[in-house]
UniProtKB/TrEMBL annotation:
High-level lineage: Eukaryota, Viridiplantae, Streptophyta, Embryophyta, Tracheophyta
Protein name per its UniProtKB record: Calcineurin-like phosphoesterase domain-containing protein
SUPFAM superfamilies, A to Z: Metallo-dependent phosphatases
GO cellular component, one term: cytosol
Keyword vocabulary terms for this entry: Hydrolase
Annotated ranges, domain Calcineurin-like phosphoesterase: 73-328
Length: 410
């Protein structure tokens, strides 16, 4: 009799784990169906984070890191705008992934400066792919850091001006499988009340054609503050980053942004994405002079850049020598302005935004910069402005000028 009670007690204890195990299984199943990747939970997710009947408060997310020491090898990748093929091409240019899309970059650090979303149809697949690589890189001593662009901010706010039909279809497919997963979880006692990301959303939208309504609802559900995709992927993005002597930001930084606090901005935007700061992004992420929209240092005509303002900003960040930005497509590829202190890396590579040839920036240590390009006409033909002028000064390895892609405003 005692043995029977012991067995029942053991079985009861084992069954306590069924809800969390089922949750992990279903989430992994949905992940693979949507993206083709198995992403096992990094940490067990407390039920309180996923179900409305929970009474305990989930632990706060770990703080985002804003400052990193110099890296032996640092790769910067510009805007990819929903183009998974070009994203992979960029990574292969720098020998970061192999032909099987596995991380082979060793201890390299990669920074993607934002604008994964909009203008293409692979947005969710890119988010999953970058998350897969982030985990693989970490196991090899490397690091993949993703940033907010203006299009991430816009989408979390519900501004879908640059969404494509393919983009709506991808989110609609995600929503279908997400709902399947929710129904599977509801079959287990203890998981009766899965959180519905569509709660409170209208069934229709003014000026949106009926055929696109469900796609809009799916996109809002996924990306609004505390939505499943926003909370899982975009909340890991930083808004500003300093690696060694390089400052990374999507649009640009002004002195007032630095005074406000770089770490403070990262934390506040992360909290907003998690749904604790209202519907609209913080003010420094909105408007022409915001950190994700600014173009003062990225105009295609270098003489239009506000070099004095840039120099002032860099002087307020200890050790900073350059600012690396995306956001504004450069007609002749990656280049520098303001005596090579403004490095512009958005080459308009996405098929939905210029269809340019991928290029990435490589920084070795704190001083050696070069451009890696997929254009066979320019490969291994680096010539800096200083070299063209006959100076021995080292700088960004500019490619010899030539026809590339048509300028398109992002």
């Amino acid at each position: 009799m005692g043995d029977l009670k012991a067995k029942k007690s053991s079985a009861s204890e084992s069954c306590k784990d069924v809800p969390s195990l089922l949750t992990s299984f279903v989430d992994t199943f949905v992940d693979f169906t949507v993206s083709g990747h198995f992403l096992l939970p990094e940490n067990p997710i407390p039920l309180a984070q996923n179900y409305t009947d929970a009474t305990t408060t989930p632990p706060p997310p770990p703080p985002l890191q804003t400052f990193y020491p110099p890296q032996d090898r640092l790769i910067a990748i510009g805007d990819v705008h929903g183009d998974l093929d070009k994203t992979k091409q960029s990574l292969r240019l720098a020998n970061l992934i192999d032909q099987s899309d596995k991380w082979v970059g060793g201890s390299a650090t990669v920074v993607q400066v934002g604008d994964v979303l909009d203008r293409g149809g692979d947005e969710i697949r890119i988010l999953y792919f970058l998350e897969k690589l982030r985990r693989e890189a970490a196991r090899c001593g490397g690091r993949l850091i993703t940033m907010h662009g203006n299009h991430e901010i816009m989408n979390v706010e519900g501004d879908f001006r640059y969404v494509t039909r393919e983009g709506l279809d991808e989110f609609l497919n995600w929503a279908d499988w997400y709902r399947v997963g929710s129904r599977m979880k509801a079959l287990c006692k203890g998981l009766e009340n899965p959180r519905d990301p569509f709660e409170g959303l209208p069934l229709g939208f003014k000026n949106v054609k009926k055929e696109f309504t469900e796609g809009f609802r799916a996109r809002i559900a996924a990306l609004r503050p505390d939505g499943p995709i926003a909370g899982r992927f975009l909340s890991k993005n930083v808004t500003v980053l300093v690696v060694g002597d390089s400052v990374f930001v999507h649009g640009g930084l002004l002195a007032k942004h630095v005074s406000y606090g770089l770490e403070k901005m990262n934390e506040e935007v992360r909290d907003w994405v998690h749904g604790v700061k209202g519907r609209l992004a913080p003010e420094y992420c909105r408007g022409a002079n915001s950190v994700v929209w600014l173009r003062k240092f990225s105009d295609e005509f270098a003489d239009r850049c506000d070099c004095s303002a840039l120099q002032h900003v860099l002087q307020t960040i200890p050790g900073a020598k350059r600012m690396i930005m995306g956001h504004t497509i450069q007609q002749f590829g990656i280049n520098g302005a303001c005596d090579e202190t403004a490095i512009r890396i958005d080459v308009g590579m996405s098929k939905g935004c210029g269809d340019g040839l991928p290029e990435v920036l490589e920084i070795n240590g704190n001083s050696s910069l070069r451009i890696l390009t997929s254009n066979p006409l320019y490969q291994s033909k680096y010539k800096s402005p200083a070299a063209q002028a006959g100076s021995s000064r080292e700088g960004v390895g500019f490619l010899e000028q030539g026809p590339r892609q048509v300028q398109v405003k992002a």
